[in-house]
Amino acid sequence: MLQKIIPKALTVAQLSDSHLFADRNGKHHQANVYQNLKNVLLAIKKQPLIDAIVFTGDLTQDHTAASYELFVNAFEECEITTPVYYVAGNHDEPALLKKYLASAPFCQDSVIENDYWQVLLLESKSATPAGIIDEVECDRAGSIINSTKSQLLLTHHHAVDAGFFIDHHGLLNKAPLQQLLTEYPSIKALGCGHIHQALTLPVKLPDREINLYACPATSIQFDVNSETAKSNGQPPGYQLFTLTETGEITCKVFFV
């Protein structure tokens, strides 16, 4: 497995859930999602010293090839040169992601690391809107983990309940991931998309508790008091992880 080696401290920007259409003027719950994506990318570009960008899925809303092309166009128009990694969301087709996100700045590796940290990307897409991280995927992650370093795991689906309707489409099989987290105490935190909310959720393990940091969407933020998908009116956003040499992790959320 190819790995991106980055020296010193590690700063990773996460964005998620762009829900693009073939038309750059397409709207998702009245939001121009293409313009929202560009606004987020331009905000990330202004951040100093970002080593990598990770997109955690749901690129498309209408499932067209043109929406994937539009995603790439957004990065080109914003002149993003920072390496961009990704995982598939429940709306995405992995083959189309691999086809269209095939050249710089996009990277198809699943590990970003430096001397102190590993950021591991885990696939959670299933045949339904809910997620599955199976034993094979967890075994793959375990084979990569270097226990002398700290790890941040990023995926699309949320591994613990968020407390609103999106939990109907959360991670179905939590046991393999729970076992992975228990087996490797060097894993310091999780990050996900899918929730369309900036939330910090506790993940309780037998020997410790870690945080799941849910990334706000570039499209819309969900109303947690609604029983179905509905915008709460918040602007698009992203989050920024700072991973220090001493194994500490901070996560800051930005709305644009």
TrEMBL record:
One of its GO terms (molecular function) is hydrolase activity. Transmembrane segments: none annotated. The keyword Hydrolase applies. Keywords: Hydrolase, Iron, Metal-binding. It comes from Cognaticolwellia beringensis. This is Calcineurin-like phosphoesterase domain-containing protein. SUPFAM superfamilies: Metallo-dependent phosphatases. Pfam families: Metallophos (PF00149). Residues 11-197 form the Calcineurin-like phosphoesterase domain. The keyword Hydrolase applies. Belongs to the cyclic nucleotide phosphodiesterase class-III family.
